UniProtKB/TrEMBL annotation:
Protein family membership: Belongs to the membrane fusion protein (MFP) (TC 8.A.1) family.
Residues annotated as transmembrane: 37-55
Top-level division of the source organism's lineage: Bacteria
Positions with biased composition (Polar residues): 11-25
Database matches in SUPFAM superfamilies: HlyD-like secretion proteins (SSF111369)
InterPro entries membership: BSH_CzcB-like, MdtA-like_C, RND_pump_MFP
Name of the protein: Efflux RND transporter periplasmic adaptor subunit
Coiled-coil segments on the chain, per record: 148-199
All copies of domain Multidrug resistance protein MdtA-like C-terminal permuted SH3, residue ranges: 329-379
Gene3D superfamilies: 2.40.30.170, 2.40.420.20, 2.40.50.100, Helix hairpin bin
PANTHER family recorded: HLYD FAMILY OF SECRETION PROTEINS (PTHR30469:SF15), MULTIDRUG RESISTANCE PROTEIN MDTA (PTHR30469)
Chain segments carrying region Disordered: 1-26
Lineage: Bacteria, Pseudomonadati, Pseudomonadota, Alphaproteobacteria, Sphingomonadales
């Protein structure tokens, strides 16, 4: 700006020097000065406007109010009412033997001679699971039997002496004191005979307990002993048997859902990695709740099947009876740190939050176990873009807003 002004002034000076005092030149000089002044004022005005905007610029975006000034957003709402749905509870758990019987050493133990069974086999009650060496015990049994014969001979001799003494008492050759002594000798001999017989019976009973046998019929689950191993009272569990082969699922269920499951309820069990489904029946519910997980155990019994292996993981669906409740699409149910909730439009067309309790979840939607009557106007979708207290224009799903062309609902 200043450069152009100096150039114009220099031109004016040259023109003045060449034609000073000429009227035409004086008019041209005044017009040129006026033009330069206007240009200078315009440049200054533009600079002032730019400076004003730069000084008042803010980096913070304008707050989002959820709706443009004067425009009320339309939202799709539904009033689901109530329906009757078959109650279903989904859970997971561990497969186990319904009645698992641990089997160990009952007698005095010893060296294992043979183990004629393998895990996975069916065994009968009383069937030998492991044979224990009894060579020493056999000799002890023979010794006890011999002691019986010795005691019986002594008893017979004492009885014969007593009989002869009784015949001589009447003749006066033996006194009554001698008879009493011989009677006591006879009684002691008989008592020793009975002791020997009892010792033999005890020895035979101990020998009978040397072998490890199955206490009941069932499926042999584990075998923890091998031939040559020395076992005794402290050897622990050598075999485990599922009595009758019966299995069960130990389902872990939340404390609120556990109350809704009646004893005798039917469940469908699917082991992990299998497409087979097995039917079971709830026969027991845990009387206590785990303090950390807030869950309890429901025991669901089922018959034996080769695909059911104790210790395996499985899922279960349990029939909990029919329920009458609203059902919503998944898009209508929201959740945050405070739990699950839905947004409803009240009578004043303002958005409200309503906490709900969820029930059965299926491909058809989510059954609301508590918190709704079903008559509310519930925001069907995109509720996350609305604010509590915001005014909206509710549009019943499948209908256009009154007095307006159909608008795309949020």
């Amino acid at each position: 700006m200043n450069y152009e002004t100096r150039m114009d002034l220099s031109e004016i000076s040259q023109d003045s020097g060449q034609a000073a005092g000429t009227p035409d030149n004086q008019d041209a000089l005044r017009a040129r000065k006026k033009r330069n002044l206007i240009i200078a004022l315009a440049v200054l005005g533009i600079a002032a406007i730019l400076a004003f905007f730069l000084m008042n610029r803010s980096d913070e975006p304008a707050p989002f109010t959820g709706q443009a000034d004067g425009i009320i957003p339309a939202v799709t709402v539904i009033s689901p009412g109530k329906g009757t749905y078959a109650g279903m509870i989904n859970a997971t758990g561990t497969l186990a033997a319904r009645r698992e019987m641990p089997v160990g050493v009952v007698g005095e133990g010893g060296r294992v001679v043979s183990v004629p069974v393998e895990a996975g086999q069916w065994v009968n009650a009383g069937q030998v699971l492991a044979v224990i060496d009894r060579s020493v015990q056999t000799q002890q049994t023979a010794s006890a039997a011999a002691q019986i014969e010795v005691a019986r001979a002594d008893a017979n001799l004492a009885q014969a002496n007593l009989d002869r003494a009784l015949q001589l008492v009447d003749r006066g050759f033996i006194s009554q004191a001698d008879v009493d002594r011989l009677t006591a000798t006879r009684d002691a001999a008989i008592a020793r005979l009975r002791v020997a017989e009892a010792q033999l019976a005890e020895r035979q009973a101990r020998n009978a307990q040397l072998n490890i046998v199955a206490p009941a019929a069932g499926l042999l689950l584990t075998r923890n002993v091998e031939p040559g191993q020395v076992v005794g009272a402290g050897s622990g569990v050598l075999f485990s048997i599922a009595r009758g082969g019966e299995m069960e699922l130990l389902a872990q269920i939340g404390e609120a859902e556990l109350d809704r499951i009646p004893l005798g309820a039917t469940g469908r069990v699917t082991p992990v990695g299998s497409d087979q489904t097995f039917t079971c029946q709830i026969w027991q519910k845990a009387p206590v709740i785990n303090e950390q997980t807030r869950q309890g155990t429901a025991r669901c019994a089922m018959a034996y099947n080769a695909s059911l292996r104790p210790g395996g993981f499985a899922s279960i669906q349990i029939d909990s009876g029919a329920v009458v409740a609203p059902r919503l699409p998944e898009s209508a149910v929201l959740s945050d740190d405070n739990g699950s909730y839905v947004l409803i439009v009240n009578a004043e067309n303002k958005v409200e939050r309503r906490n709900v309790q969820l029930g059965m979840i299926s491909d058809d939607g989510i059954v609301i176990a508590g918190g709704l009557t079903g008559q509310e106007r519930i925001v069907a979708r995109a509720g996350g873009f609305l604010n509590v207290g915001e005014t909206v224009r509710p549009v019943v799903e499948g209908a256009a807003p009154a007095g307006a062309a159909p608008a795309a609902a949020q």
